[in-house]
Amino acid sequence: MRLLKRCSCGPTQNAYESLYNVIWSKCPKNKFCSMRKLQFAAVVGIGKFNFGSSSTLSLCECLGLKPGHHGLRLAATRQKLRISNSQQAHKAKETSRRQKRKAARLQREQELQDLEGGSSYAAELF
Where is this region: Disordered (predicted)? Predict the structure, then answer.
């Protein structure tokens, strides 16, 4: 039950789940794809997870492709945005705002659960 409470705030529970989210965003589970495309999605996803948008440029260079001016500029812009978002997420004001939103959402969920007559899923409920 404690694990479910920790997961209810929205973010993933651990780094592996976050990595899987990046990979599956490149190659959705609900659509069929070849093994080759899945492997490519895994390589791109791991690179993006570890190194950000610059990994795409490195991958292009490994494949013998020369990234253009616009590609370099886009990668730099995305990298700056990623760093900015990361710094913003750690600010105290943002943290308190997230906590207030979470508390309001949990209160709404509790009110809905009370209206429905209790939990419909719990251990040993059946």
Answer: 83-111
Read off the pLDDT of residues 77-91 as tens digits, 9 standing for 90 and up: 988 998 888 787 778
Give the Cβ contact number of residue 93 at 10 Å. 8
Q: Taking Cα atoms as reference points, which of 44, 9, 7 lies closest to residue 24?
A: 44
Cβ neighbors of 52 (< 8 A, separation 6 or more) are 78, 79, 82
Q: How many CB atoms lie within 10 A of CB 52?
A: 16
d(CA 63, CA 38): 18
- In tens, the pLDDT along 108-117 reads 989 888 887 7
